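Fig. S4 source data, part A: sequence.
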Amino acid sequence: MAKRQNIPESEYLKGLNEAVDNIQEAVDNLEHGSVVGLANALLYIATESQQRAPVDTGDLRGSVEVKIDGEQYAHGEKSGGVTITSTLPDTATKGEVSYNTKYAANQHEHTEYDHPKGGQAKYLESVLVEEKDRILKLIAEGIINEMMK
């Protein structure tokens, strides 16, 4: 059984406010770090999958879109690359990478299609499977970097 210590009134809970402030700062950094990590991972997925997407006119590659909590964060360029279009939110719970042409799903799913100008089927899925460690590392780095500030 623990023994109650006699702590002078002037010392009782001294530093509690500072400890609470430090904990709150850590929580804020954790929240923001997770958003940074999520955004970095989504941009990586978008860029990598865009390079693997079949190309004919460039419309499919240009249609890649990154959303964070349902709001557009970045979009693809027909000539290649992904451009950030908005500021990073303070908090977020979900992100997505999608391709927005009427034939994106067919090109993704039909492994028997030929792609004479480059690219492959399963262009998005293959990144998620083959690069999962890199994706998780990007998320973790976002959190760690913010926690170290």
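Fig. S4 source data, part B ends here. Residues 19-147 form one domain.
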